[in-house]
Amino acid sequence: MKRLVFAGLLCLGLAMAHADYKSSVPAAGATVKTAPRSVVINFTQAVEVKLSTFKVYPLNAPQEAWSSSTRLRRLAQPLVREVLVLKGDAARRIDSGVSTSARTAQSVSLSLKPGLAPGAYVVMWKVLGVDGHAEPGYFVFVYKP
Known about the structure:
Order of helices and strands: HEEEEHEEEE
Structural class: alpha+beta
CATH architecture: Sandwich
CATH class: Mainly Beta
Shape: globular
Number of helices: 2
Number of domains: 1
Distance between the termini: 61 Å
Number of strands: 8
Mean pLDDT: 91
CATH topology: Immunoglobulin-like
Low-confidence stretches: 4-10
Largest sheet: 4 strands, antiparallel
Strand content: 35-45%
């Protein structure tokens, strides 16, 4: 009986889990010396790739802010609120779309357009987890050769 109760509680806990940010390449808050060709976001559980939104935008932040991930996150918040819901914004973005072809995945890769200029960039998403919950999120990285 105890095993049955434990199994039920474990299943309930797993069902209540959400697809949260786990890690990424480049890492959140990282400064990279080589322009990345893609961004990979790893989540704690699988997401519905085609039913989720992923974007990478340049962050118009002064160079003196590039060394403070806290300041960059604060500067990124209004941009994320403004553009995450936009449609038809491909020309403003620095990503060329999701390159992950699976219907569901724990890791999602976004290809970046060539010719990335030095600066701060915001990777943002609103994912639909396989548990049915939508979770937004974002992180910032800096490209400084």
